[in-house]
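Quick entry, no commentary yet.
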Amino acid sequence: MNPGTAALERGLDALCALAEDSVAVGGLGVVALTERVGGDKSQLSRTLRTLEERGFVERDAETRAYRLGSRIYVLAARVAESRLIAAAPPVMRGLVRELGESVHLSVRQGDEVLTLLTESPAATLHAPGRVGGLTPLASTSAGRALAFDLEEHELEALGLVAGMIAAARARGYALVREEFEPGVVAAAAPIRNGGGRVVAALNVSAPRFRFDDRLDEAGTKLVAAAGALSL
């Protein structure tokens, strides 16, 4: 076998082993990984160092165990985004027909929300989202839905109140009334991946004078639509 191919296979086998539910949190040391994927321990160590340098795995400073790195999750998010961009438009157009208001698909970018897609009705007054535009996570309904999985300390760092997010999580959708923009209200529901993690959000926004009393109705419809798009 070509040495380069053998190293690639070792790396891929190691990543698959680290992705198993039983080890994903705590990780595995080199010896345990070698027992799982086979081969030579020193060769696997070299492969793991290369993967670590490129962000595909990370090593715990105390336990020395390897876990999947952030770059794996970035790549997975890009796959999810591509799939959503292809699948979301008809679902979003259906929501626009039902609600008569603008609907947006967004993802989290740090402490901001990135709008990927927008569908709007042919109305003279609506609340469109700018594709590619960034908005604050803390004061938007999409941002709050995207924060459903975060721990309390993470929420606090983003300026979010843990109790407020817990209530929205229990309800299944987040609501915002004029916190981001005067006169505008919005509702949002999270879209989850196969592992149950939030990867995106669907939200509807509209002028308060005509939509405030329909926010809970919109939230319920968004939850159903987001469920249909969950990976």
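second:
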Amino acid sequence: MSEAQERAFDELAPHYLLDVPRDIAWTSVHPEARMDPAAEYGRRAPLIVEIGSGQGHAIVSAASARPDDDFLAVEVFRAGLARTMLDADKAGVRNLRLIEANAPEVLSTYLPEGGAAEVWIFFSDPWHKKRHTKRRLIRPGFGDAAARALADGGLLRLATDWEDYALQMREVLDAEPLFERAFEGEWAARFDGRVMTAFERKGIAKGREIRDLVYRRKHRA
């Protein structure tokens, strides 16, 4: 990391970065650890969670535009977390927190059950080589973790510039009994709450089509 990014961890992390109890690995979450959103944000408000927030461009923009909502960025790459904190501080964003941890553990145990109004997964690693596709985040079984974290009627928003992964996402989530489509037709309309990032522009410039999906968490019995 750069000197500025190192400084972000020293000076900004106390406000932005949650101190998550660990299990075995540095990015793991202890199975008994639970987040208390009201304590972390100092209020009760709709919580939007972005999985794989990268450099934080999308979530910092959203948090700045929506001060009445709370935002949580989940990322494992420290340079991206540092960049997110620097940009959030520069923009005066205070309704954002960050977690340096593995996404499945955050969804399946750390977040309170039904605590998220929305979960965003934008341009997660497509692991496009055939021998690596088993590493993709959206695969059979993922729906259980996402459904646990989402409130009844909450939305799971996804976007990718990799066609094969988009088809897999749709196939997996169409088969999940706890979710239903929240769009008509083949693909969802582009989510207007997602700022256009350099990453998305790069995909478009390479001729890749951006595909959005959105699913609604069914009501608990």
